[in-house]
Specification:
Blueprint (H helix, E strand, L loop, with lengths): L2 H8 L3 H6 L5 E2 L1 H8 L3 H7 L11 E3 L2 E5 H10 L1
Antiparallel strand pairs: 1-3, 2-3
Helix pairs in contact: 3-4
């Protein structure tokens, strides 16, 4: 079934739009689930703990990991 048929069936095309939405920023918990690692292991792999680690973004005390940065980091490993 192609995209146009799915949009026709869903009416407004919302189903098709929801299928491709991915978060831009991940929490440590989401990153751990994605990598199938423990949260504590992900914390030890962050760039703040070791040079060349997983790149992070800080918003106050909150840590977020960019999905695109994570993909680039994984390709370099």
């Amino acid at each position: 079934m192609d995209l146009s048929k799915r949009e026709e069936k869903s009416g407004s095309g919302e189903l098709a739009r929801q299928a491709v939405v991915q978060p831009l920023l991940l929490t440590v918990r989401e990153t751990a689930r994605l990598l199938k690692l423990s949260e504590s292991k992900v914390y030890t792999m962050l760039e703040t703990r070791r040079p060349g680690g997983i790149p992070i973004k800080r918003f106050g005390r909150s840590l977020r990991i960019s999905l695109s940065d994570l993909r680039r980091w994984l390709e370099q490993q």
